[in-house]
Structure formats: structure tokens, C-alpha cells
Amino acid sequence: MSSDISKILEDKVMVKCPSCDIDLAAPLNYFGKVLCPACKEKFPVNSEDNLEIEINDGVFWKGFFAPLWPTIIVVLLAMTGILSSNSSPDLTGLIWFMCSLILWPIIGFSIAKSRGIFVKSFREGARNSAIAAIIVGGLIWLWFLSFIAGGVTN
Fold first, then answer.
1. Are residues 108 and 128 in the same domain?
2. Is residue 53 part of a domain?
3. Residue 109 sits in the same domain as residue 73
4. What is the DSSP string of the chain?
5. What is the tens place of the pLDDT at every residue in 26-66?
């Protein structure tokens, strides 16, 4: 009997009504509004919105670097010559690298929007990584396009 009660309490999070300061138990994964039984005020409950993101948190940095892994792997493969035809790195490796840069913000924003799968600090790190990807990737793409426009010779 007591294990059933502890299981119910483990699946709940305590929230405070902003109007009357009464403590209420809400489901842990619930995102939406609840009605306070005491003052009848509806207020949003999202257990993650009440958490502050700490950049010093290791989970934030894991989320920041998670979208970068495909690009890092392609760079390593291009530098070893695996993606290249003759020399290391050549135009083929550069094209693979440029294509992998497109994946960086896509993966970052996908992780950032995956509510309920990853913790908020991980998603926040991925969102910041995706924003950095747009800036850094955009600059690298501008360089690449100017390189191609100048003509590629052997």
C-alpha cells in the first residue's frame, strides 16, 4: 500500500499557485494549465519553465556539442583522406564538409524542439548551438561560395 503512494508521489511535481500560494501536485510530464481548487485561478504548469538554465551545467554543454558531431566526424574523415579521391583533403572532402555544416543547425533545432525527450538544459544548449551554426556556417558558406566563384584549378 505504501509503495503505491510513493509511486504516485514520484510521478508528481509540487507547484505553487501564483494567486493564493497553495501547494499543488501536478503530473511530472504535464505541460498546460491547471485550476487551483482554492482560488479557482488557472495558471500554466510546466515543471521545466521554473528551472533556471546554468551554462556551467555539463548537460548544457553536451547539448551544445551534440549537433556538431556529424560535422566533426566528416572533418576527421576528410582529413584522413577517406572521403577524398587522391589527396587529403581535396575538393570532395571540402564538399562533404560543407554539406555536413547544413546538418548542424537542423540537428540543433530538432533537439531544441523535442520537448519531453531531453531535459531543458540539454535542449537549450542545442538551441544555442544551432544559432551559432547559422552564424558560423553562414560565414563558412560565404567563403566557400567565393572560393568556387573564383574558379577551382588543380
1. yes
2. no
3. yes
4. -HHHHHHHHHTEEEEE-TTT--EEEEETT-EEEEE-TTT--EEEEETTTTSPP-TT-HHHHHHHHGGGHHHHHHHHHHHHTSS-SSSSS-HHHHHHHHHHHHHHHHHHHHHHT-BTTB-HHHHHHHHHHHHHHHHHHHHHHHHHHHHHHT----
5. 776 666 778 888 888 887 776 555 445 556 668 888 999 99
